[in-house]
## 1
Amino acid sequence: MNAPMPAAHDDLRDLQDLPSYPKERDDYINPARALLTGPPISPLRFAGGSVGWLVTGYHEAREVLRDPRFSAERWRGDDAMRPVPESVRRDRSSGAGSFLAMDAPEHGHYRGQLTRYFTVRRMRELEARIEDIVADQLDALEAAGKPADLVRHFALPIPSLVICEMLGVPYEERELFQSVAARLLRQDRTDEEFVAGKTELDTFLRTLVEAKRKDPRDDLISLLTAVDELNDEEIGGIAGLLLIAGHETTTNMLSLGTFALLRDPGQLERLRADESLLPQAVEELLRYLSIVNAFPVRIALEDVVVGGVTITAGQSVAVSVPAANRDPALVDDPDTLDVGRPRSSHLAFGYGIHQCLGQHLARIELVAGYRGLLRRFPGLRLAVPRRRSGCAATWSSTEPTNCPSPGDGAGPDRARPPHGRNRHMGSTHAEFM
């Protein structure tokens, strides 16, 4: 269905003037300026041409994300939900177990099976192992020589190893799920590529779940096979969601966060001088970077008033987390990175029932990763001038693209990995001393 036209609104002048979704960032760090200067809620033209609403205000974003009158179920939407092909979106059986696009009570049924495994206490039990993984990857980074590829040898392996060990996925299969993630999340991929990638991942996970049922081990997938309420397809859907979400955004947060610190020497030196600031710095980097690129989209189940605007039943609403996290209503001077800023109630992990299940794990990985990097390489710096570096937007997050260093044999044609190649590989080069 096509969403109805928004009611009369001061900002609705000409449909051609509406900002579109998805909205590219102005650079690798900052949200598009148009998102930061407009009203907290305004009309938006989605990728397929339908008109709905864009929320950029902090308080309005929280309101939409927590209100059960807004649905996350993708089958209800129209072309606003472009990241998922229509054939997949309309097939309600295709997302079994993938509770990200579900409403209560179905969402709670699946998420509830996992909550006990992602508590703060459980995640703290993993800290020692995560520290070991970080140390191993720092060794690999150093052994690679100068200039070092921060993503290939550090940012990508850390969360990939952690989530593989948690789920019981053989790490030697990482190329498969990293490659599939690349294809599923690329903004310019075709619907056919999405379906093919999803089918490949589903087949791999279904085979793995069957093996775990026959020979259970001490891992999360094995534990889920013992839950009577879950079938193999649902367990595979849960595992696929955790596998991709468990490494994609943390990888990009480790690399882009390092990049942000390297371009701001004053903040970097504050961290070097006082490691106790690291937990605050992680929260500030999460707020400042808002790594998730695709705005959460919700569909109004009934007429709802948000920020003085009436959103009618059936209309789609995109919530810009990057813009909401730069709202002065959240923090003072929001466009400044301040590693000593008191922890804010940012929306980097979402809000409401869909708030990130793995947020405690991500925080531990980020603190351990940044701390290890700063200790091991006190002279870490970018291998190329900042102006030659850049990032690419995916449906999931913003990530560094190739930053070739002088003399490493990289030419302009390597500025972005070719389709089908793991886009993280060969990404951010740095030099250390």
## 2
Amino acid sequence: MRLTNWFENRPPIKRWMQRRLPRCHEVTLSQRQIFVFLTKEGGLFTVLLAVTFLAGVNYANNLILGVFFLLSSILVIAMHHSYAQLSGLKIKVLHASDSQAEGQARFQIELSPTTAKCYCQLELIWQQYQRIAVLNEKQILHFDIDTPQRGRFLPPRLMLQSVYPLGLIRAWTYIYFDQEVWVSPRPIEAERNVLNRIGGEGEETHGLSGQDEFFELKNYVQGESLSRVSWSHLAKGQGLLSKQFIDFSAEQDALDYQQMPAIDHETKLSQMAYWVQILDSQNIAFSMKLPSSELALGQGEQHTHQALRLLAEAP
């Protein structure tokens, strides 16, 4: 374990760093956020400096002292350049996708220089390792972060570091993003009596292909009927959108928390998540009832997302 890692894991240091580096949506790195210290090679280099200095003083040899001062100036210049590799760099989180328990949430971050200089040998560690050899314009990176349990999730710290140019000095920083994601329960298969399903046995489940009632707008897919295009939105410059309808005479279902066969709360939510995915895959409109909230009858990707969000937010 690095000496710096051991030092940072001390409780007083952790509290100090949390005050110094609060959670944020974006940050431009400056002296306040950047830490600088010797690498292992830099430590050996410092020992060499000490030996050179002692030899020069002991033997009163100006040549050896000259070598010492030359090497010392190289170390100071390396420290300056290592710090410069992070200073002025802007990092912000663009998007984070919701996830399910024991899954992964994808975070999208953007790195952009605020000056005309190039940033070299940047290393990012966020449960995954990514390296940027040269950064001279905006660059977008993706990280998949583990989400161990249901509920509100704030990502762990992102570490950004560089040992450019000589590997003697390490400059690094930690970034705590405030971008939260909601983690839905991990689906657990469960049998249930479909007591609340409406629709004849021989009826076809039309779902979003019905023509009864307007439901939502979504991006137009090539091949869809032009009669479904929302021309008013196109005229406003909002793009080509397709009207979606739901057929409330087709098969429907009602998910009820009390009907789940499990005993404990978390397992019941996981079983409901399973049935949400089953009904969505079968294009069956459904409503959902939880002890603290309800979701009206609906269908489609957005409706499924709302159902999973309610399960994630359930107390």
## 3
Amino acid sequence: MSDKQKGLQSVLGEILPRIEHRNCVQHIYINFKIYHGSQFLRNKFWTCARASTMAFKKVDPTAFDWIEKNAGNPKYWCKAFFSLEVKSDMLCNNLNEFFNSFILSARDKPIITMFERIRRLIMERIKDRKFLVGCKPGPLCSRISRILEKRTAYEDGYTYSWNGVDGFEVYSYSGDHFKVNLRKKECSCRI
């Protein structure tokens, strides 16, 4: 949310009271780096936004005060305060900006033609994405697989294997292993 849209939050709260509202962290970050330009603090800002706990205040109290004063309530932009009911944890509104640019060619059409054009664009995009994902072995696309493999190296010696359907088995070098069922959302670790 830019500085020019401060009233939007209260209006949306009145019109859609049960909907969770969020701010775009990218816009907050742009304003933050004007006043706190060190690369260290900029990196810590993103760490703070992605964090599941609030530890930024210990790093730099003045930067924290700026965030508290200018970024508004952290429940609108920090993952630590996001509701667990909402299934999206996006911090930036780049998805909206992408979608708006994606439908640009349909905007000047009459309403029915516009919706038909958008429907076709979305169908084409879904087909392209499914083709890309369908070419990969396993349930995950290659980008996510690479990220998981990279993170497994850091995860204290844990590794995983896919069972071919809807589950994984997670192994540790100490000999522990846990079964994870994605469909049932269960793990034998009971966490």
